[in-house]
Amino acid sequence: MTDLVPLNVFAGQHWVGSLTKNASYRLVFTYAPHWLANDDAIPLTPQLPLSRQVFDGDPVETFFQNLLPEGDILDFIEKAWHISAGNTLCWWEIGMITLKIYLL
Length: 104
Hints:
28% of the residues lie in helices and 21% in strands. It contains four helices and five strands; from the N terminus they run βββαβαααβ.
């Protein structure tokens, strides 16, 4: 792992897992042990099933990129923070995003 501090992912008040990056600067997600042991736990997405597995690659990138703003808001923030277009990993590094996922 690199120097990115893991971002804790929550569903309501429950810690679901952690998001970080690997040596190739790709996003990596792991479920928290307490979430996996919870009888009410559900996966964030079918592409990231409940497992002790370390998830990386397209399913992780796609899921977390889809949580970011789009359009004019994205353009404004990228310009204001000098983030190159498409560098969504930088959003996590500068702490712009507080990630709470509301599972229905």
